[in-house]
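Why do we care about 3D structure at all? Because function follows from shape, and shape follows, mostly, from sequence. That is the central idea of this module. The next example makes it concrete: a single protein chain, its amino acid sequence, and then its structure expressed as tokens.
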Amino acid sequence: MNERWKVWSAVIAAAAAILFAVVWYYNLIQRPLWDEQQAARKLALEQTPITEITSIETFSGAESYQIVFGTDEAGTEWIVWAGKEELHAEKADDGWARNQIRLMMQENEPEAELIRIVPGVWKDEYVWEVYYLKRESRGKRHYYDYYRFSDGEKLTTLRLSLIPD
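And the structure:
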């Protein structure tokens, strides 16, 4: 009985050590992102009309941006693009809504599988980036479409390599 207890104790200790290492590694990897989001949160609250933050998303383009969604004291919704060198805020109603972009995509590309729609920056313009997957005759392909935030005009489409069947 004593030998069995030692084996189980060793197994439990090893499992705990592995779990600790995984959690530590996850925190190590995520820390830079969390720090960027915390800095964006602070800037948005201090330098824009936002008084309450509802969510933060990451845009990874030529430059990385933390996209802060929030409301002001009157309940007006705002979107903030927080980059390393710039902070830009717009009322959500002054541009196209995520749902408008989603509906337009569903009309234009009904077979596409939408993966993500996030505000971003494309060639110095504030945009909605739409990332989606589309089946083609020889496989699947990922696409990025960029729509101007202010008027919903499609600016460009980037096609990634074909993933053969």
